[in-house]
Amino acid sequence: MKFLNGGWLIRDGYDVKYAANIYTANVEPKKLTLFCPFGVPIHHPGQTLGGGILTIEVTSPRPDIITTCLINLRKDRSNCPKFQLNETDPDVEITENDEAWEFTSGRLTLRIAKGETIDFQYLYDGKEIAHSGWRAKALVTDPDGQLHVSEQLDLGVGEKIYGLGERFTNFIKNGQSVEIWNEDGGTGTEQAYKNIPFYLSNKNYGLFVDTPGKVSFEIGSEKVSRVQFSLPGEEMSYSVIGGENLKGILNTYTDLTGKPPLVPEWSYGLWLSTSFTTDYDENTVMEFVDGMAERDIPLSVFHFDCRWMKELEWCNFEWDESKFPDPEGMLAKLHERGLKVCAWINSYVGQKSPLFAEGAAKGYFIKNADGSVWQWDLWQAGMAIVDFTNPEATAWYQNHLRRLMAQGVDCFKTDFGERIPTKDVRYFDGSDPELMHNYYTYLYNKAVYDVIAEVKGADEAILFARSATVGGQQFPVHWGGDCSSNYPSMAESLRAGLSFGMSGFGYWSHDIAGFEDKPTPDLFKRWTQFGLLSSHSRYHGSTEYKVPWLYGDEAVDVSREFTKLKLRLKPYLLEQAKVTHETGVPMMRAMVLEFPDDPSCEDIDTQYMLGDDLLVAPVFSEDGTARFYVPDAGGDHAGEPWVNLITGESHEPGRWYTKTYDYHTLPVLVRPGADPLNV
């Protein structure tokens, strides 16, 4: 939220009250509370009359994390959904002298200066990593009379900000305005399906705003030397996380918000989808499956998208009998071929669905303020939305999934979860609708993941999810959403996946060859290379089938070659998944995450590391040209060349390359001293 008019003035219609100084403080065993007047500093008791204060509470949920809560007027927050955090009540040290208070948790210290202004300095092992100074903490009233709590941290020279969820805009977030608000906007806009109020700075700190609400970030976009974040209401809690490097910060952040679990071994193979609105029946499915086998393209998962159910009845959780008269028999055939089965679902129920009347009668849907069922037509005619704050509604929804799994479905694609209403609606448990908008996806995906883990076992639990919020990394895998079939969209998908990985999520996928349009054979082959060198790999589309033979004989060859390459890499991927599970470091990671001390890696968003030892640079051009950077591996292998996994060609470190590749090769380089094909 921008409220300034240049460097000196306030925008018309806004009112801003800055916290001035710390008038008094309370020191408790594990809590420091500061009382700060708005406007001008208080020097004597007579100035305490007729003005408000900002209460600042400093605590620590885990070592190396210091949490600050800014409070104007205390409100009852019992109806506010909260992220499920793993707090450990760590030992902290609070000291005071004539110049400052110091609050230390682990190796992180917050030094709060005494004086005429409020000054927060964060130090990790004694080195400053973040700072909040003059006129940083404020209470802002917007033109509609809505109050917002606002905070600012300095943005230093050369400092770069990463993360904030799966964002399709520039990888470096400097200069951007970011709204943490889940929306179904495709991959070509500033909107995002997966908004995470957490960022990483290359100054080695992380910033997490602990709310599912609509946090607004201005990253050097209003005051160019500051990161500003604000939240509607009168209370905002945020945590600064310190670490030796970006990986260490991610580890600590995911200790707090949840680690990505291990996912089934079979999930790393190729997934093939029916596509979205394409017409298909059992014969079509078996033709696709047998066609892959006949062409020697190993397939691991077959996915049934929307039209396994009747139109206008999504979701009814019933197979369309005109197309699938014997679903159990069909699923058994797929299992006999060694395949797992995924089925598309969402949390919406169209009015024509037989389940609508039952859900409405039993109070299982989100309601209008007057108690009637909330409905609209912007997806399925007259659709309602399952209210997962109602335990009976959750159990009802899960029972339909149990029935499908009893038929032979192994996992689910949990689509949507972003278009959640906020105006004049109410939830079963009384939750604040504004805060439920982003939080809804957590309850939705958790409900589905939990029932799969119950029926199939925790080792077999996996989703293919589109929406997410904080903690959603515990319910993988997520894919990138509705991309177009062109190179810019392929590149924006990768940017988003790298940002997502910088936000605490361990696994990520995307629609190979694009979702919205029909790809050219050229794009199909290039995106196939990229897709099969991602943590998870799925052919999917909107109106077009994505079986390789529709795009030419060479597309079949490329699909076969790279699917088999990924299967050869499976032992390596499984080892890397253990790293992801234990540390929160993503399998597909930005170059800056792996090489934080190499300035050349700070901005790169067209290549990535697949685990510790593989550098992948997808080809984003019709002429087959790739431009990529090879870092120095350092350590015992400093200065040694990287070798292309496919061609054996050597590449000296510390330089950029521009090379042309045919469809059977691309830059996929092995780190010196590693052998990912022989783990």
Write the layout of secondary structure elements.
Layout: E1 4-5, E2 9-10, E3 15-18, E4 24-28, E5 31-37, E6 53-59, E7 65-71, E8 92-96, E9 100-105, E10 108-113, E11 119-124, E12 127-132, E13 138-141, E14 147-154, E15 161-165, E16 177-179, E17 195-201, E18 205-209, E19 216-219, E20 226-232, E21 235-242, H1 246-257, E22 270-273, H2 282-294, E23 301-304, H3 327-336, E24 340-345, E25 348-349, H4 354-361, E26 367-368, E27 384-385, H5 391-407, E28 411-414, E29 425-426, H6 433-456, E30 463-465, H7 487-501, E31 511-512, H8 521-531, E32 537-539, H9 553-568, H10 570-583, E33 588-589, H11 591-594, E34 608-610, E35 614-616, E36 625-630, E37 642-644, E38 650-651, E39 655-660, E40 668-670
Parallel strand pairs: 22-23, 22-32, 23-24, 24-28, 28-30, 31-32
Antiparallel strand pairs: 1-2, 3-13, 4-5, 5-6, 6-7, 7-21, 8-9, 9-10, 10-11, 11-12, 13-14, 14-20, 15-17, 16-19, 17-18, 18-21, 19-20, 25-27, 26-29, 33-34, 34-35, 35-40, 36-39, 37-38, 37-40
Helix pairs in contact: 5-6, 8-9
Measured as a percent range, the helix fraction is 10-25%
Number of helices: 11
CATH class of one domain: Mainly Beta
**Sheet with the most strands?**
8 strands, antiparallel
* General shape: globular
Please identify which CATH superfamily of one domain we are dealing with: glycosyl hydrolase (family 31)
Derived from helix and strand composition plus strand pairing, the structural class reads: alpha+beta
Q: Which ranges are low-confidence, i.e. pLDDT below 50, for 5 or more consecutive residues?
A: none
Q: Tell me the total number of β-strands.
A: 40
Mean pLDDT: 97
Strand order of the largest sheet: 4-5-6-7-21-18-17-15
State the end-to-end distance: 49 Å
Pfam families: Gal_mutarotas_2, Glyco_hydro_31_2nd, Glyco_hydro_31_3rd
Organism: Bifidobacterium eulemuris
Keywords: Glycosidase, Hydrolase
Enzyme class: hydrolase
